[in-house]
Every structure is written in structure tokens, then in C-alpha cells.
Amino acid sequence: MSEINVDAFRMINDIGKEYTSLNPIAIFIAEYMVFFLALAMLVYWFTRTNKNRMMVLCAMISFLAAELLAEVVGRLHSNNQPFAELPHVNKLIEKAVNNSFPSDHTMLFFSICVTFWFFRRGWSFLWVVLAVLVGISRIWVGVHYPADVLVGALISIVSAYIVYRVVPELGIVRRLLVLYDKGERFILSPFAKSKDSKSKDF
User: Fold this and answer.
1) Is the predicted pLDDT of residue 196 greater than 90, yes or no?
2) Which of 4, 113, 121, 170 is the 20 to 30 A CA-CA neighbour of 83?
3) Domain 3-184, CATH number (from 1.10.10, 1.20.144, 1.20.1530, 1.25.40)
4) Residue 40, SS3?
5) Transcription regulation as a keyword (predicted)?
6) What's the burial of 11, exposed, middle or buried (CB within 10 Å: 0-12/13-18/19+)?
7) Which residues have C-beta within 8 Å of that of residue 60, sequence separation ≥ 6?
8) 111, 156 contact by CB (below 8 A)
9) What letters, b where the CB count within 10 A reaches 16 and e where it falls short, cover 13-36?
């Protein structure tokens, strides 16, 4: 294990020992922010605009592509979580011991959040900030080294960029989204008619 990697881990992880009042925030970001991300994807999807649906689809493909790349990278190098390899780690969440290189959590957030930024720009850079905070929080709570996070982020950024450039240009993807939209409208049309009839009664 690189000394720089361990030293960087200690620098971040030890903050939780000194500022214990911040640990609940780190735990929340590391463990539960994923539910906020899932909710955001659902909201974007059901706004039912073509751009948002293409964005969500690309985000999911980016993550899958990042996971495939990570499988290859994980075979070239592996390490267990810091709490399993180092003494006196400030471990704040429970996690099974396995290969933590690269960080799956980091890849999930970076592949999705960077895709959001590619599509929307402007204030969407806050999604990237969220991904960075999640990566740092995984080190803070003791389950990843900085190298796990950095490599996961790099794989995801590359994956997100390639998918952003390629997938929206594929005619088959656009046609599938159109077919899905038609199917959704067909399924939801009885509910829409029912709502319209009720509104007319008033």
C-alpha cells in the first residue's frame, strides 16, 4: 500500500476523531445520500422531457460501463478496506471485508452526477460537488482509501463522457425512448381521462 495513500487516508479519517460532531453528517452522506440520488433520477425521468429521459438513461449506462471497467481494474490491483488493514481506523459504518478498489459508491455518484452536469451545465455542477462529498465521506467513515475513490471517480468520468458523446447520437436509443413514451401515455391515458372528467364535474 502506498505511503501517500495511507497518509492521505489518515488525514481525512482522523478529522472524525477530532470533530466528532461532524460524524453524523459524514455517515448520512456516505450511506443515505444514495436515496436522494435515486429520487432525483425518478423526478428527472417523470418530467417526461426527451432531454431528461436521455440524461437519466445515459447516467444508468455510464454507471454500468464504469462497473465493467472496474471489474478489469479490480483484477489488476486489489486491497481490502482501510479498517481491515490498518490499526486505529475511525470506522463509522458496518461493511463486509472485500476488495474496496475502486469504490463502487464513488462510481455510482460520479457516473450519474457528471452525466447530469454534461447534459444540463450551469448550476448542475452542484451534482459534481455532491459526488466529491460522497467520495470524501467514504474515506471519512473508514471504508475506502483515497486511491479507491480517485480511481473510481476517474473511471466514471471517462465512462460518462464517452456515453454522453455516443449514446444520444444512436438512432435506436431515440426510437426506444419514443416507443417507451407512447407506451407510458397509453397506460396512463385512462387515469388522465378520469381526472379530466372529475374536473369537469366541478
Assistant:
1) no
2) 113
3) 1.20.144
4) helix
5) no
6) exposed
7) 112
8) yes
9) bebbeeeeeebeebbebbbebeee
